[in-house]
Amino acid sequence: MSLPAALADAQIAAEEAFVALSSTSTRCASPQPSKLNLSDDIELTPVTTAPPSSENQDVAHAPNPPRVLKSRLQKSRETKQFITLCWLVYLMGWNDGSNGPLLPRIQQVYGVGYAVVSLVFVFACVGFILGALSNVVLSERLGFGKVIVLGSLCQLVAFSIECSAPPFPVFVLAYFINGFGLALENAQSVGYVASFKENAETKMGIFMAAYRAGALSSPLVATQFAQMRHWNFHYFTSLGIAMINTAALTLVFRLRRQEECLAEIGIASEPKTTTERSHFRQIFALKDVHLLAAFILFYVGAEVTIGGWSVTYIMNVRGGGPSSGYISTGFFGGLMFGRIALLWVNEKVGERLALFIYAILSIILELIVWLVPSLVGDALAVSIIGVLLGPMYPIAMNHCGRVLPRWLLTGAIGWIAGVGQAGSALIPFLAGAVASKGGIKTLQPVLVGILCLMTMLWALVPKSSRRPD
Q: Could you tell me the domains of the chain?
């Protein structure tokens, strides 16, 4: 073999050896990438297929959390919580519905006029406003369960004072204590029901109807006590209902915070804002809060004025007898019926438009009560006005849940309700002050004006959400 041929054969052999060595090293290194790929597959599979990871991702980025299937136990607990809150709001309605039939007797017993007896509304209003302001701070420090029980204890104290028929200043002070407790209960309960995810509008309507059920039944009892010697014994009935309320709230919610109570029924708490501003500043910086508060002020004011002063109006202007107190029953019964019976109308035409329709019809009926001198006709018109006014409050509360941030909802509703309670004192007191000058016949012009202002304010409330979330 020649030298060139030998060199060529050696070069070819070297190249083959190099290729073989490279292939061997590649095969030796390949198990490590293969192992990593296998490990990656094992780790990535749950992220892709398992529901928990995808749900957590959706909750973090989606405006509406995904629907979570609840167990039978969670549904049972939710039902117990909802019934307990309905009993609470029943007591609130019972308290408010008692005023109309008892006002003439209170005037008679204490020897006071329209303006002075209206102080019961004023002191209840002051207590409610202070309670609404305190609610924001107490909610952060004490939590839902303790605050709502504190409100119920205030009612126990108030009814204990009232049932003894104390001197008028002390009697009025009891209304202040009662108003403070009502503010805490109202804000906490409405905010809690607004946190429900399934059938939220229907539950809010039933919840508000429970208030009307209390306002419907209390005039039936209060009218009877108003004609008795011991008229103040009516408050013993209120005290008994309040005791049941306090016991139920303590046993069902066990003084726990709202997040814990909602987690027990399968509802995750809403994420809170990261801003350093206090809840007060965040709430008061929202224009929508003030618009809704102004609307609720005139709505509640008109509602309490009709329920409270219509009995006196029918007795003095239309010549009704002692049984005129049952007109309050018709009015509050209409409110309860309207909140349930008109749910399908709200859904059919839309809640915003439905409220405009109800408001315009209410104004027309108030004009009839004002201008048509008929005892039976006026009583019937007042009941129909109750039907039309009934859905308005739950519609407004549902709208709060749509346009206000979730993490501020309880505090904002507390403030809105507090301003509304100011209307429950301001408007009846205004009606009483005007009546002391021009007679109770001035009631209807005042109510027509209030309903018109209320309608205009609803037109200013935004249609859709301005929330960043």
A: 71-268+279-460 (1.20.1250.20)
